[in-house]
Amino acid sequence: MTDVIRTHGLTKYYGAKRVVDSLNLRVERGQVYGFLGRNGAGKSTTIKMLMGMVQPDCGSIELLGEDVATMNPATRARIAYIAEGHPLYNWMTIDEAVRFTRAFYPLWNGTLVEQILDHFELSRKQKLRRLSNGQRAQVSLALAVAPEPELLVLDDPTLGLDTVVRRDFLESLIQIIHREGRTIFFSSHMLGDVERVADRIGIMVDGVLRVDCPTDHFRESVKKLVLEFTGPVPEGFSCQGLVNCWTVGSRLELVLVGYDDQQRAAVEALEPRNIEVVDLNLEEAFIEYTRGRRRSLPLFAEEPRDDQSASDQGAA
After folding, report:
1. Which residue in 20, 9, 80 sits closest to 54, CA to CA?
2. How many domains does the chain divide into?
């Protein structure tokens, strides 16, 4: 498949702090890619660099096969961006916003705009300043997809929306964009939404891309083990793939990546009275993984894709 997004060694400092650290990222055509991380992990800075709004200190970015630094307007018109908070000119009506945005694009699907506004029951006469957060998101979606973009980049587009509006927004987004080889790259704090729609996820931890794999692969690989003991709980347990461990009364709770026979043998050597293996959903797996001990995080990667090494996938 063709890479729609590719970065190599992408790095950004704010003062002495390295907020994005040697990011090697690939997003293939037709993917819905969920870009995750806790606050301050480097997600928004990465997205702003992708959009050319922030200049990297080193590294390169290619979107649709072109370097972002020298991208021509025709290629840029094939990319749409929905910013966090859905900033719009509040003094405009929806109709004025549509006509204003249309002037920047040679290709514009007016019928699609009408369909989206009608679907969300939005009148062109409404003032943007009087819209709810959900309605602003809906208008932003209509404006973003009208130029028929090949790549849609979204920075936490459902933040602040209620459950029903958020679900409707995402379903509409996928229905409209995810066809004909189009690609969606989005960050979100709503892990349930990501689990529903993303083919693949990346997880940033302290500016480093620690995870880059299919969504199911990550969810199924992170396990929580609860060990019960009749006597004192052993201290200082360690094994390959250990993310975290803590003691709760007579129990030792572990979070492991890639639970296998070697890890199982290490756990059984502690001679617990009982071992419970707990399956996690994506949100639970994300929480357990990203709040792990900061000294290190275990390697987390699938088999390299094509000519890319495991280190190029960003797992470390």
Report:
1. 20
2. 2
